[in-house]
Each structure stands twice: as structure tokens, then as C-alpha cells.
């Protein structure tokens, strides 16, 4: 039974227990974070912030270049539709079985049992750790881009900027106690996103008009094209999915399912349009020579590009907090960190534990700045299973008696197809790691 103390935080003297098929129990503690307090509009902005983070500046290079015009455009549209569908399946199971499942692992544990609970926990946190590490690399790259605009002495290397970025991300993480507390910062994030998206779009249009004919052919040998196409397909689904939908849905007010559907529709309408725009225009302007970080390709006034990179850096700091929040929630709940965020014990805990967690992220980011290869592998073994395979199979198992034979077949097709895609993407990522490990060294300045 959940007791609300009036501040929107659910507490209970007794942990809920979910029995699996062997009558063993998965202990599910009440969260120390704020839940059921946010409007669907605020949650929609949380989801949109994830889509239009600085990662969007790389999609023209990581998606369009390996796929080309027709497969790239069709792929993005199809990925949008199937991602909305898969996320809606998970959203509809949020109150399955007469209780609210505020964590992905809670839902998996309730449906499958203890083993699935543990496996889902591991897959999700590895995925989120790699995303957080990637954000720190992005922030460091934006800072380096600013530095290069005003200096060519090459004294400051990328690992130094990654360290600065990690420190700033830690300060922000310590200051924001939980996901719902982002509120005003979501508006700031939206403005920052618009700045670097508009700058990238306008300068790319200018370059595209002035440039000679571009080469849109897919680079590489036949074997390389096959593997890069598979990798690009994995990047397509990564662009839209968080692997933490129940944790985000936990913050939304009742009715949680209908409100979450509104937030998802907001994300996949208003949210994807800027991403489409900057991705397509970047590829149109630069073709196969598109940089993996679009602001590195564009030509324009120094102060404009500096403003865009500053915006990308600051927005990345905010976006990282979203994907780090499940780890923060786990740690705060485990150690009973609740009450006033400014209480000495709570503040010191956040400084020590969150600071330590982001220090590890920062070290990995500096050590492996070509982390994109490892993120492709992580996406293959975690994002695909969490977002598509598990979502379809959980819905199939939970609604088994209410589905027609055709609906059951549809979900099984999805499970099998994305299972094969996951295997193919993992093989492609391992090959990419093997190739790039010959080129890059640890703590590389790239």
C-alpha cells in the first residue's frame, strides 16, 4: 500500500513483493523520488529533450551517409512509427496487474519473475551508462569546437574538455534532486536545442546553395557497406528510444496511461520535425563528406558557430540528467535519501555518490573518445531487446487472452525480426570496434 505524505512522494512501511513462477520474490521498494506530479506536457518536453539533444547533429553522418537518400528518409520515417508503437505498448502496461510499475525492471519482474527482473536491470543500466558517457563526449567535443574557433595552438586536447564537461555535469546533477525538478530547465533546454538546430540548418542551407555538386554515393567496399548499413539501422532506432519509459511515466499525473500517450504523440510530432530538418539538410549540403558532428562541417561567422556550440554544450548537460536519473533514483532509494534536497545528509550524499558516478562516466569518456563504436554494441545488446523485443513480448504475454490470432502473430513477427536485427547489429558493432581500435588510442584527441 502506498502512502502519500503530501509532497508527491510515495512511501510505504512495507516493500511490495512480486512472486515469480517459482514463488520466490522480487522485492520492489517504494521510490525516494517524486512521482505522479508532472503534467503530460512537461513529460512531453522530457521526451523531446532526449530526441533533440546534441546527438541530432550527428545523424546526417551516422544515418544518412551509410544509407543514402531513399533508404535514409524511409528509414527515419519507419523508425519513427515503430518506435512510437513500441513505446505505446510499454506505456499501456504501466498499470498492469492492478499496480503501477514505475521502473522497467519492476514491470519485467512482475510479468516474468526474478531472472527477468535482474537481466532487465543489467541491460538498462549498461545502456544508460553508455548514453551518459556519450553525452559527456559530446559536451567535450562542443567545448573543443569553441576552443578551436579562437585558438590553433592545440595545447588543450579533447580529454581535457571531457574532464571539464564531466565536472559541469556533476554540478548540475548534484543541484537537481530528481527528474521532476527539471521543470524550468526543460524550457531552457528547448531554447538551447533550437539555437544549435537553427544555426546548423541555416548555415547548411547557405553552404549547400553555394557548393558544387555533392557526392551522395555510399562510401566503402561492398562488405563495408553491408556492415555500415546494419549499424546505421541500429542508429535509427537509437535516435528515438530511451530504454527508460516507465521511469519517465512514473512522474506523470493520473490518468497515467492516457497522459503518457499524449506525451508520446507530442514527442513524435513536434519533437521529430527539428531532428528531421537538421538531418536531411546536413546530408543535402555536404553529401558523403558530412561530418559526424554537423557544426564541424558548416561555414559561417565565428560568433554564430561559437553560440551554437555553447548551446550544444549546455543542452547536453541538461539532457544527461534525464538519462542519469534512473541511477540516481536507485541510489537515493537504496540509501533512503528523501526529504529536503538541502538537508546536509542528502546534499553530501549527492555530492559524493552522484559525483563519483559521473567521475567514472568521465574517465571512460576520456579513455575511449571513439565510444560511438561501443555504443553501437550496447544498443545492439540492450536498446533493441528493451525497446522492441521485450516491449512486444511483454505485451503479448500480458494481453495474451485479449489478442486475436493475427495480433499474436504480429507481435511474434516483431520479436523475431528485432531479435535478428539485434544479432546483426552486434556483429556489425564488433567489427567496427576491431577496425577502429587499430586507428585510435586511449585518451585520443579526435
From TrEMBL:
Belongs to the amino acid/polyamine transporter 2 family. Amino acid/auxin permease (AAAP) (TC 2.A.18.1) subfamily. Its main location: membrane. It is a multi-pass membrane protein. This is Amino acid transporter transmembrane domain-containing protein. The keyword Membrane applies. The chain crosses the membrane at residues 39-58, 65-86, 125-146, 158-176, 182-205, 263-286, 306-331, 351-368, 374-391, 412-434. It comes from the Eukaryota. GO terms for biological process: amino acid transport; auxin-activated signaling pathway. It comes from Salix koriyanagi. It is found in: Endomembrane system.
Amino acid at each position: 500500500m502506498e502512502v502519500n505524505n503530501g509532497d508527491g512522494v510515495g512511501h510505504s512501511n512495507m516493500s511490495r513483493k512480486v512472486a515469480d513462477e517459482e514463488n520466490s520474490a522480487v522485492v520492489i521498494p517504494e521510490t525516494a523520488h517524486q512521482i505522479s506530479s508532472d503534467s503530460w506536457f512537461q513529460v512531453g518536453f522530457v521526451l523531446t529533450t532526449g530526441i533533440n539533444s546534441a546527438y541530432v547533429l550527428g545523424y546526417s553522418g551516422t544515418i544518412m551517409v551509410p544509407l543514402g537518400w531513399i533508404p535514409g528518409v524511409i528509414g527515419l520515417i519507419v523508425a519513427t512509427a515503430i518506435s512510437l508503437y513500441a513505446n505505446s505498448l510499454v506505456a499501456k502496461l504501466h498499470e498492469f496487474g492492478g499496480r503501477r510499475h514505475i521502473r522497467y525492471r519492476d514491470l519485467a519482474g512482475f510479468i516474468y519473475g526474478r531472472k527477468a527482473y535482474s537481466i532487465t536491470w543489467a541491460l538498462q543500466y549498461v545502456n544508460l551508462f553508455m548514453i551518459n558517457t556519450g553525452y559527456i563526449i559530446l559536451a567535450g567535443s562542443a567545448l573543443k569546437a569553441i576552443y578551436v574557433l579562437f585558438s590553433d595552438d592545440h595545447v588543450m586536447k579533447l580529454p581535457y574538455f571531457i574532464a571539464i564537461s564531466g565536472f559541469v555535469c556533476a554540478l548540475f546533477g548534484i543541484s537537481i534532486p530528481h527528474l521532476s525538478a527539471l521543470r524550468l530547465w526543460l524550457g531552457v533546454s528547448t531554447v538551447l536545442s533550437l539555437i544549435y538546430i537553427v544555426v546548423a540548418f541555416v548555415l547548411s542551407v547557405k553552404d549547400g546553395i553555394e557548393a558544387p555538386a555533392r557526392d551522395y554515393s555510399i562510401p566503402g567496399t561492398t562488405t563495408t557497406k553491408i556492415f555500415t548499413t546494419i549499424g546505421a539501422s541500429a542508429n535509427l532506432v537509437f535516435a528515438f528510444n530511451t530504454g527508460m519509459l516507465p521511469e519517465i511515466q512514473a512522474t506523470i499525473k493520473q490518468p497515467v496511461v492516457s497522459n503518457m500517450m499524449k506525451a508520446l504523440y507530442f514527442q513524435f510530432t513536434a519533437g521529430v520535425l527539428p531532428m528531421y530538418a537538421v538531418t536531411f539538410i546536413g546530408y543535402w549540403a555536404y553529401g558523403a563528406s558530412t561530418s559526424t558532428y554537423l557544426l564541424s562541417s558548416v561555414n559561417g561567422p565565428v560568433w554564430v558557430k561559437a553560440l551554437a556550440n555553447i548551446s550544444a554544450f549546455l543542452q547536453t548537460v541538461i539532457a544527461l540528467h534525464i538519462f542519469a536519473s534512473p541511477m540516481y533514483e536507485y541510489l537515493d532509494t537504496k540509501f533512503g535519501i528523501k526529504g529536503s534536497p538541502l538537508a546536509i545528509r542528502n546534499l553530501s550524499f549527492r555530492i559524493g555518490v552522484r559525483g563519483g558516478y559521473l567521475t567514472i562516466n568521465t574517465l571512460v569518456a576520456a579513455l575511449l573518445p571513439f565510444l560511438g563504436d561501443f555504443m553501437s554494441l550496447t544498443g545492439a545488446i540492450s536498446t533493441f531487446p528493451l525497446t522492441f523485443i521485450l516491449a512486444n513480448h511483454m505485451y503479448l504475454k500480458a494481453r495474451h487472452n485479449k489478442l486475436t490470432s493475427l495480433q499474436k502473430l504480429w507481435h511474434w513477427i516483431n520479436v523475431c525480426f528485432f531479435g535478428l536485427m539485434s544479432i546483426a547489429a552486434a556483429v556489425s558493432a564488433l567489427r567496427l570496434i576491431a577496425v577502429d581500435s587499430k586507428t585510435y588510442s586511449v585518451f585520443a584527441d579526435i
